[in-house]
Each structure stands twice: as structure tokens, then as C-alpha cells.
Amino acid sequence: MSNVISSYINKFDLGGLAHVRGRIGWKGLKSNEYVDDGPFLIAGTHINGDKIQWDECQHITEFRYEESPEIMLKVRDLIISKDGTIGRIAYVDQLPGPATINSTMMLVRLKSQDSLCSQYLFYFLQGEVFQKLVAERMSGSGVPHLFQADMKQLIVRAPQDVRKQKKIAKILTTIDNLTEKTQALIDKYTAIKQGMMADLFTRGIDLSGTPDTNPNYGQLRPSYNQAPGQYKKTELGWLPEEWGVEKLETLLAKIPSAMRSGPFGSALLKHELVEQGIPLLGIDNIFVEKFENKFKRFVTQEKFNELSRYSVRSRDVVITIMGTVGRCCVIPEKTETSLSSKHLWTMTFDVKKALPELICWQLNYAPWAKSWFYQKSQGGVMDAIQSSTLKSLKLPVPPIQEQKRIHLIYMNLCDRIEQERIVYSKLKLKKKGLMQDLLTGKVKVA
Fold first, then answer.
1. Residues β-bridged to residue 173
2. Alpha-carbon gap, residue 120 to 49, rounded angstroms
3. What pLDDT, in 10s, does the model give residues 216-255?
4. Cβ(368)–Cβ(394) under 8 Å?
5. Are 61 and 34 in contact (CB under 8 A)?
6. What is the pTM of this model?
7. What is the number of alpha carbons within 13 Å of residue 373 lying toward its C-beta?
8. What does the DSSP assignment read for 187-204?
9. Fewer CB within a 10 Å sphere, N or C end of the chain?
């Protein structure tokens, strides 16, 4: 550390400035002693990100709370998971009621705020020094455990002036608040999308007549209860009169290998994979409504030419059929040439009959699709999806013009969510950079 930085940053022995406490065993506490109302009992699983999920906490009696006064929580305390998934940290900025921690947690409480600020310490523990300690404990032998001695021996680097610590904490808190609000928007729009799509796939959009003759033109149809005459009964339930019910195989493009799983057996051996070349898609590229283009496996151009019947095209629908079964996405436009692996079903649809994005949504979320897969797994967990299962899946099929209207709404919602996700990612990167600069003294605050 340079002299300039060392004159600005001080080293604090946390053990000398803080009380570090943990519940000593359970004192006989059993889960059947939990009550519906009473002091909160916090476990590591109740920390999401860096927030305590108070609604998920258990409750204990006043007697059980009062028998361990050393771990009764106060505002400005820090709590850290020390067993299992270690290193989860939360700052107690408010208490909805009396609260304590269970035996998997430890409490860090500064004796005063004169030399070290609790909020600054909270961010320091998110930084490189403490996270390196957590990684070391995670990689050690046996069950991962963070010891109270680890915390007492921890050296905290912070500006000597506590006012500057508070300013750093305020800057990082502002970023956290923006990130939290952005995540709330993502959750909100995701819920709106799911609800809207569920309505659109059971009620659709009324395109009968013209805007002049139909006051509901271009709007969501009235529900079956409101306008039963506009619906017909099908094996998938009540659907708009104009809709059909088709097996998935009838919606595939009329081309060779419209539905294919990639090379297997002698067609592609492990030693034929290369470090660079044509990407071989696997389950690590396919997520729910999201294609991840970070490729790990490749084949030569010659091998691709040999196996070109398994090539993946833009707007193909791909679903995982082994490992994590049933994740489905659409291959984006302008994705580089690639090959489908044996862990996937890749499907090319006739876009004059069915739009791939709408098929994908149904495979991921629609109750009729989930019910069909559940039925074919004989009530258990499906460990693979057979081609016959997919081909025989029955789907509601609106007229193509109506599909296009539904598709437009779907894509607008997807775009809005993606915009917020981009903002979220940028905020996370900004926080990471600020922590690196501010917590090390590389950038000083006035």
C-alpha cells in the first residue's frame, strides 16, 4: 500500500472494536416449538442478496428469545451465515419486532460508531478481503464453517475519518437502492407478462369485423363467462371459436429434420471436439426464454459439414431433454452457425402456421404443456423428453394474424424486461468498480 493511501486508510482489528456472538447450540430448541407469532428467528436461508426476508422467518416464544440476550438483534447489527452456505451477510437497518438468530448465524456488533461505521463494515465484508476468507473456508475439508475467531482476527481497512466511511457507505447504499428498484421493476414486468400471456393464450385478441364495426377490435376478448358464445369447448378447455387445437408435429416446417436431436454415439466422439470451430450447443446454452451464447465445445468445419442435418437455424425452438429437462428458448436472429447436441431437441416451425416465440412460451409455462409432460412422466420427475412426447403435445393455435398481434405484445414485454435487466447489470458492475476504488482508497472521498 502506497504512503499516500496508507495515510488515508487505516487498519482496524475487528476483534477489538466489535462483539462477535453466536447461538451456543439450540438449548434444546426444536422446530415443533416454532409459533405463529412472536420474536423472529433468522437463518441463513432467510437472507436474499443482502436483505432479511422477514416474511420467511420462523417465530419463537418470548421465553426462548429472552434466554439468549447476547444475540438479541439491534439496529445497525450485522449478521453472517457461518454454517452451510457461509458468508451471507445482512445489515439490520430496521426491526419489525424482537429478533434473534439461529445456530447457523453469527452476530457482529460494533461497540461504538466512533472509529468504524457499521454500514461501511457491511460493504467491506462484501469486498475482496472477506470474500477470499469465505472462499478458503468453502474449499476446506469437511462441512464449510466460518468461525467467530475468523471475524475477531479480521483486519478491516477503512478511512481514518469515520465521516468518510459514512460517505462511502452512502454512495454504495444509493447504488444498492437503485439496483433494488430495478429488480422490483423486472419482477413487476415479469409478473405482468406472465399474466398477460396466460390471458392471451386462453382469450386471445378480438380481430372480428373492423375497428369501425367492432368497438372491441384489437382488444383482449371478453372472458368465457362474459361472452360464452365466442368460445368452444376443446380438450384444452374453452377456447375462442376461431382457434384450432393442433399436435405440435403438424406445426413443424415441411423440411428434412424439422425436429432433431444432435449427433450421438459414433457420430461424434469426445476426441473430435476442438478448441475453436463451429459451436456445439448444449444444455448450458439453453435457459427458460434465454439463449446463452457462451460456447464451450466446438467441432471442425469438416465435421459440421458431415453432420449438417443437425445444424441450428435462427428462430429454431430448442428444448433441453436431458439433465435439467424442459428449459426452452428461441435461437435469436443472426446467431452464428452451430450444431445441436444430443441433450437437446431442436425444432423448426412453419411460421405461416405458428410463431416460434409463442410455441416456446407454451413449452415453458402453459399448464396444458406441463400437464402433458407430467402425464408422460407417469406422475414423476421427467428425466428425458421423447420425440413422441413432443410431437403429440396438443397446443391451441390462433389464426396467424391473431398470433402476430399476440407476438407483438409478447415481444414488447420481453424488450421492456430486457432493458431493465441491462440497467441492473450495469448497476452491479458500477457497484463492483466503486467498491474496488472506494474500499481500497484508490479513489478518496472528500
1. none
2. 17
3. 899 999 999 999 999 999 999 999 999 999 999 999 999 9
4. yes
5. no
6. 0.85
7. 22
8. HHHHHHHHHHHHHHTTT-
9. C
